[in-house]
Amino acid sequence: MAEDTRQRLIDGALEAIRRHGLAGTSARSIAAAAGVNQALVFYHFGSVHELLKVASLAATRARVDAFLDRLAAVTTLRELLAAGRELHAEERTLGNVAVLAQLLAGAQSDPHLADATRATLQLWITPIEQTLARLLAGSPLAELLDTAGLARAVSAAFIGLELFEGVDPDGAVAALEAVERITVLAEVVDDLGPVARRTLRAKLRRRDGARPP
Fold first, then answer.
1. DSSP code per residue over 20-46
2. CATH architecture of residue range(s) 56-210
3. Average pLDDT, stretch 99-117?
4. According to the model, what pLDDT value does residue 209 have?
5. What angle (nearest 5°) sits at the alpha carbon of residue 86, between those of residues 96 and 113?
6. ∠ CA 100-103-105 to the nearest 5 degrees?
7. pLDDT in tens, 131-169
8. Which of 1.20.140.150, 3.30.499.10, 1.10.10.60, 1.10.287.70 would CATH assign to domain 1-46?
9. Which H or E run contains 13?
10. Domain locations in the chain?
11. 3-class SS letters over 101-137
């Protein structure tokens, strides 16, 4: 019974953010969405802040877990981008993009919410980093790219596109198509013969070494 109530509160917190935005999310609005007494918010979680932290982590963990099999089946960067586009469409349909937008906005001025949002994003970044490391293994690009940094750049790009789409849908589509062209270039690099690959590696090392620290 207690676990059922906790889950209803978690679901209610997410629904309250979707309906009212973060500014309108309170113990009262969460309890109304969950169909329980608002005192139960404090009984189970201590504060609205803690409930929002638990809710964002729980919801994201469930989405990530459901996405892991798709990531495991990815064999190219282009397939990874396609999987990301599918996920983006699903997240928008479920209303999770709206929740993320509210959390990111609130995190700018709320350190506690920033910590929770950072932990939530990390749940996505870790499997993406692992997938990128697998896909780039043996590629000349692997010697130049920081996989951990690239995983964060990819995640940040998709978050930006998710928010951007609400303002300029055509622009978001164009941006995704531009990213897809970059994945094609990566495939071209991987298809180079051994001599060309060695030449490319040498040039990349020289250029990387010439960069200021």
1. HTTTT--HHHHHHHHTS-THHHHHHHS
2. Orthogonal Bundle (1.10)
3. 86
4. 57
5. 25
6. 110
7. 999 988 877 677 667 888 888 988 888 777 777 777 888
8. 1.10.10.60
9. helix 2-20
10. 1-46, 56-210
11. HHHHHHHCCCHHHHHHHHHHHHHHHHHHHHHHHHHHC
